[in-house]
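User: Modeling request: complex.
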Amino acid sequence: MSLIPLLPAADPRTPFAYRHGDVIDRDTFHAQVMALAAALPEGGRVMNLCADRYWFAVALFAAIARGMLTVLPNSAAPEHIATVAAEQPGVLVLGDQTDSPVTGLPYFRVDVAAAAPRPTLGDMPLIDFDQRVTCMYTSGSTGTPMPHYKTFGRLQLAILAGAERVWAAAGAPCSVVGTVPIRHMYGLESSVLLPILAAGRMSSQIPFFPADIAASLAEMPAPRLLVITPFHLRKLLEAEIALPEIAVILSATAPLSIELAAQARAQLGCPVLEIYGSTETGQVATRETDRDSTWHTLHGITLEQRDEEFWAVGKVYQTPQMLNDTIELFSRERFRLVDRKANMINVAGKRSSLSFLNATLTALPGVVDGVFCVPERGGDGEVERLAAFVVAPGLDRAQILAGLRQHIDTVFLPRHVVFVDSLARDGNGKVLASTLQGLIAQHIPARG
Amino acid sequence: MEQATAPDLALEREIAGHIVTALNLDIAAEEIVPEAPLYGDQLGIDSIDILEIALVMSKQYGVQLKADSADNTAIFASLRALAAYIGEHRSK
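Assistant: Request completed. Predicted assembly structure:
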């Protein structure tokens, strides 16, 4: 059993987190983690729903210090929260909101508890390499979210391997601003754990509008790292607002086009590192998309083909992890992405599967038949919005959307709901692609 | 936001038109109820769309929208609230 310090050694006065003009140093972070760890009630697991990245981090590390598992739901859809709660008996919700963001579960407010007077700091707690610290949920090709556990030592190895690559591109450890969800693997690794475990600085904000992104970057010292999705990056560039100097941009969750990567480099004067990874594998490889089509794995991760599948292998994994994509291997460390596995769709960086969406739609009360589709894209880099053809006499659009909203993330709600008398299905019960194309041509207006 | 002043109906209609065009909604601009929530089931607008709308507002009216988070956007409570905010802050 090997033991690792909860937090890396650092000068206690080193600035660590930035929140609307306030600077929180490493010592204060450590003290607030320990204060919260002492205040948390007995229990085995917590669901961390903090809205502020700093309090999310304090709650995460306090739970680790107490040996508690942190459960991270992948969306706020009520049904998903209920499923997660049922799988995680006794789970305590941690948050930084006045009222609990979810109903029906015990709630503990962390920012009040951790803000208590600073304790005298004892020795840094030591954490077992194999301690399970987080439970993430994958979207899953079947649509059923699957729990996936991460251990402390392996997470740390993966973060340090990523830091080696990202800090090298930036020239030094960075101030990190992220626009991405902190309960998903990309946001957890790159915007939360990277600054904590690899001597960076974090922003407490999760900025949304371009002007918010600029403000969050501006309150932190250079070099700066921006953790973002291709969709958000495109909107940031289109806004054409003044931004502080950025050393490097990370992009993940959806394919980054060469054009967008090149435009970002031209407009902002910095490279965009695209990350390849998944909830199961974490970050696996990177490339500078506008200069190199080949992906390079992070230190300590190699890829292997076994039968038809490709696997990520390394000390960062308890067992090898299967990739969700078809790749062409040039070596154990270099590869080309050939194809995403069929059936998965991606809307502005969020993933789901058509089979899950279709099953959800047809399970709604009053829906006789129904099918989702992805109408042809309007232009380069436009977000794909879904449409649905529905057989549901007696229901209207609002009822369909309200029903779906209970089960699926809002980005997957159909933009166009077209009611039809029936859907032609073949002998296998499938709606043929040609049938769908005909329906789309007939009913969905082309994007202006 | 100024609640006392009368709503600028012309600006509301104009902004409704921009929203329908930008998001490729399958309804007419006049069908957007000024007092109804922009988020939600009537229009099916979500946070991705809000970013799209924000971009159009900055191009058309020179207003950079800001919020501490995507969730507390009172500006997007309704078409009327959005139009009132734009009317107050527009630079073109």
